[in-house]
Amino acid sequence: MSEQQHIRRFVALSDGEEITIEIRTHDSGEVDYTVGDRSGKASFSVARGGGAVLLARDARQLALRVATEGDVVSVMGRDVSMSCTLYPESRFLVSKMQGGLGAGTGTLASSMPGRVIKVLVSEGDRVEQGQGVLILEAMKMENEIKAPRSGVVSSLHVSEGDSVESGVTMMEIADE
Q1: What's the DSSP call for residue 105?
Q2: Which fold has domain 98-174?
Q3: What is the model's pLDDT at position 165?
Q4: CA pair distance 1, 95, nearest whole angstrom
Q5: What is the dihedral angle through the alpha carbons of 111, 113, 117, 122, rounded to the nearest 10 degrees?
Q6: Rounded to whole angstroms, how far apart are CA atoms 168 and 48?
Q7: Where along the chain do the CATH 2.40.50.100 domains lie?
Q8: pLDDT value at position 71?
Q9: What's the pTM?
Q10: At a CB cut-off of 8 Å and minimum separation 6, what does 51 contact?
C-alpha cells in the first residue's frame, strides 16, 4: 500500500503582503512546504495535550504554539512570533475576484487566468465599491468581478472576448 499525501494551499495576508503557502503532509508525519519562494522539508507532531506543535527541521526542533481566532492565525515560539490572516487558496481567489479582499486599491487585476465575457462599465463611469464591473469566465464558471473601491473608471485595459492571465491589470479606478 502506498503512502498517502495531502496537499493544502493557502494565502496568508500579513501587513498587506500576499504570501502563498503549500503544505504536503505525508502519512509518515513528514511535511514538504513552500512559503512564498522558500521551500523545505520538516516533520511535525502535536505535543502531549495539544498545546503546541513540535516541528523538526535540519536537526533542530521547535515548539510552536498556534492560536486561531476566525481567519487570524498567530504562531509563537522561542525565536518566532507572527500573526497573519490565513485563507484557503480557493476562497481567497473567489473573494478577491469579487472585490472582497484587497479592497481600497484603484487597480483591478485578474487573480486567475480567464476570458472577459462582458464589460459592464465604460471609461468615465462612476462606480461604487462592490458594484459589478465585468464578467470573467474562469475555471468554467462565470464570475462577476466587483469594483474594489468607489471612484471613476479611469482606464479599461480589457475588452469583451479578451483572454487574461493572472495578475493582468484589467481596469483602473481613480478618485472622483
Answers
A1: B
A2: OB fold (Dihydrolipoamide Acetyltransferase, E2P) (2.40.50)
A3: 85
A4: 39
A5: 50
A6: 48
A7: 98-174
A8: 67
A9: 0.50
A10: 65
Rounded mean pLDDT of the chain? 79
Contact between 147 and 99 under an 8 Å Cβ cutoff? The reply is yes
CA distance 130 to 118: 17
Q: How many residues does the chain have?
A: 176
Stretch (H or E) spanning 90: helix 89-97
* Residue 99 pLDDT exceeds 60: no
pLDDT at 103: 45
5-88: what fold?
Glycoprotein, Type 4 Pilin (3.30.700)
Q: In the structure grid, which three cell numbers stand for residue 84, read together?
A: 497573519
What angle (nearest 5°) sits at the alpha carbon of residue 110, between those of residues 86 and 165? 115
Per-residue pLDDT for 64 more than 90? no
Domain with CATH 3.30.700.30 in the chain: 5-88
User: Cα torsion at 104, 108, 109, 111 (round to 10°)?
Assistant: 70
